[in-house]
Amino acid sequence: MLVYPSSIDLSGRTLRFLTGRLAARRQDIGTRWRRLPASRQALLALAHLRCGDTYAQLDSGFSIGITTVYRYIREAVEALAVLAPSLAGAMRAIRQKAFVILDGTLLPIDRIAADTPYYSGKHKRHGMNVQVLTDPFGRLLWVSPALPGSTHDLTAARHHGIIAALTEAGLRCWADKAYQGAGGPVRVPFRGRHLKRWKHRHNTTHAKIRCLGEQAMATLKGWRLLRKLRCSTNRITDVVKAVLVLHHAST
């Protein structure tokens, strides 16, 4: 097998942050010895999350068994996931914003045609639906737990209580056509082919505002593991939360 040096496009601050969380966890559970120190475990987890390196690749790169790789990554993800803000916690920070942008995205997974709940008719592939809130500049604020890909964006937003939370906060929100009928503070474009001129102007202005939310999607997919998830669907929510915490730690 050929081995070569590689790099991870993250700052040293991100590595130090995760190393600190893992070191604290080891102290809490009274760990006496590990194959890798906390700093190397953090590097291993970042290589998996940011670069999408497989367990087999990490097994060779860090000279540990695949079972140990799996256990180390799971431990890191769980240590990070508990730090992710809840919707209520995120809303306390969001209240200070002029408005927010709401959008949904599909995280692809490796499932077969028989797994109907995970198949998205819109995207024509299997995946998990997550809802994303960003600030007016397209910066990532909050990411929802993952639901099966067949879930409609509006249904997912209501399921997570996003619409109710925005209404209670009296905060304006821009969203795309998938959220038609959300009501409350959610503003969506007009639908139809033959619209009046003022409606066309409204849609153009709306699109200019909402498109900034795509930056957050690019930020999320910058963690290459999220471009094709191969883990259990029960773990995807924790993976997304871990990515959100690491993103905030690196900015």
What order do the helices and strands follow?
Answer: HHHHHEEEEEHHEEHHH
The biggest beta sheet reads:
7 strands, mixed
- What is the percent of helical residues? 40-55%
Into which percentage range does the β-strand content fall? 5-15%
Tell me the structural class: alpha/beta
Give the beta-strand count.
7
How would you sum up this structure, described in words?
The protein is an alpha/beta fold and 251 residues long. The protein has two domains: 12-81, no CATH class; 87-231, no CATH class. The protein has ten helices and seven strands. Strands 1, 2, 3, 4, 5, 6 and 7 form a seven-stranded mixed beta sheet that branches. Strand 2 and strand 3 form a beta hairpin. The chain is elongated and about 70 Å long. The two termini are 37 Å apart. The model has no long low-confidence stretch (mean pLDDT 90).
Tag the structure with descriptive keywords.
7-stranded mixed sheet; single chain; 2 domains; alpha/beta; 47% helix; 10 helices; 251 residues; 13% strand
Give the SSE layout.
Blueprint: H1 12-29, H2 38-51, H3 55-62, H4 66-81, H5 87-94, E1 99-108, E2 119-120, E3 125-134, E4 140-143, E5 147-148, H6 153-160, H7 162-169, E6 172-174, E7 186-187, H8 197-210, H9 213-221, H10 236-250
Parallel strand pairs: 1-6, 6-7
Antiparallel strand pairs: 1-3, 2-3, 3-4, 3-5
Helix pairs in contact: 1-2, 1-4, 1-10, 2-4, 3-4, 4-10
